[in-house]
């Protein structure tokens, strides 16, 4: 649980302006979804937030302390979960405690009792307690991603970042994984920022939405303000054309109650 303050953040790679004067504040425990077309700057922003990438200008602070490099209290979930396939789900989850375990102890697999309890609690949070001893390589893509979430939770972060965490999953698994991320964040009152490219999933799980385009923030608001027009602004007409067409058809049809269900999702 942390307050995040991003102030006048810019990042350029040579001539490419990946982030352009980005500022926002996220209060304790908020669940924020980051949206934008490919190349909008989402990953760059997340990498700056976890200290992997140094901004060209501006600053980020977590609970008043400036981010100057990678921190143990910031955990990241990736599209590729990078779990170790040869070992169990439980052992994978335990590696989240590496940051607070001496090299020798981790080499010998001697984690503290508190860390072991935390690994089991995290596996329980993501619905994998019964599969704790299963070899990670034998699990489905969605389960492996949930192991990655458990590992991030064992890190005991105060900020959870997720970069396209469900992009490589089928729609049903994507929903399941997002539900576990959201529930884990709620259970631990964990400030969370997740970048997503599926608008439907973003709408379903987001509390606050930050829309990016060409490195700038073009929208920052809550569910009730996150309208089809806003989605147009973020993505151009591509994502919403079908929805608008459905709406036009259903009103011409004078049978709105039987129109396509997707239109009601927006
Ligand atoms: N290491 C890098 N070196 C050079 N250019 C980079 C680097 N990382 C990102 N960029 C550029 O910065 C811009 C923003 O990229 P970024 O990956 O942050 O966008 P994104 O919104 O996360 O896109 P995607 O959804 O495709 O991952 C793009 O033009 C990208 O090519």
TrEMBL record:
Q: Which residues belong to any copy of the ABC transporter domain?
A: 4-239
What ranges does the record give for the region Disordered, renumbered to this chain? 242-266
Could you tell me the superkingdom of the organism this chain comes from? Answer: Archaea
Q: Name one GO molecular function term.
A: ATP hydrolysis activity
Recorded hits in Gene3D superfamilies, A to Z, give: P-loop containing nucleotide triphosphate hydrolases (3.40.50.300)
InterPro entries assigned to the protein according to its UniProt record, in alphabetical order: AAA+_ATPase, ABC_transporter-like_ATP-bd, ABC_transporter-like_CS, ABC_transpr_PhnC, MetN_ABC_transporter-like, P-loop_NTPase
Question: Per the record's keyword annotation, is Cell membrane included, yes or no?
Answer: yes
In terms of NCBIfam families, this protein maps to: ABC_phnC (TIGR02315)
Protein name in the entry: Phosphonate transport system ATP-binding protein
């Amino acid at each position: 649980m942390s307050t995040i303050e991003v102030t006048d953040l810019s990042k350029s790679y040579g001539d490419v302006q990946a982030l352009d004067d980005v500022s926002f504040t996220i209060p304790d425990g908020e669940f924020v979804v980051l949206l934008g077309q490919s190349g909008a700057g989402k990953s760059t922003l997340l990498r700056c937030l976890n200290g992997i990438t140094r901004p060209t200008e501006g600053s980020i602070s977590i609970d008043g302390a400036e981010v100057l490099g990678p921190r143990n209290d910031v955990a990241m979930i990736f599209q590729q979960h990078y779990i170790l396939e040869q070992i169990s789900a439980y052992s994978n989850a335990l590696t989240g405690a590496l940051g607070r375990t001496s090299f020798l102890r981790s080499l010998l697999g001697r984690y503290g009792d508190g860390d072991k309890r935390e690994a089991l609690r995290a596996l329980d949070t993501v619905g994998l307690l019964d599969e704790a001893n299963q070899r990670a390589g034998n699990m489905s893509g969605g389960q492996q991603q949930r192991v990655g979430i458990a590992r991030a939770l064992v890190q005991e972060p105060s900020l959870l970042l997720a970069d396209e965490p469900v992009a490589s999953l089928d729609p049903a698994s994507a929903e399941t994984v997002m539900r576990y991320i959201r529930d884990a964040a709620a259970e631990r009152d964990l400030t969370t920022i997740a970048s997503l490219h599926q608008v439907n999933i973003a709408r379903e799980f987001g509390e606050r939405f930050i829309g990016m385009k060409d490195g700038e923030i073009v929208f920052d608001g809550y569910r009730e303000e996150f309208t089809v027009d806003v989605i147009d602004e973020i993505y151009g007409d591509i994502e919403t054309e079908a929805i608008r067409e459905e709406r036009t058809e259903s009103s011409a049809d004078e049978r709105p109650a039987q129109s396509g269900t997707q239109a009601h999702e927006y």
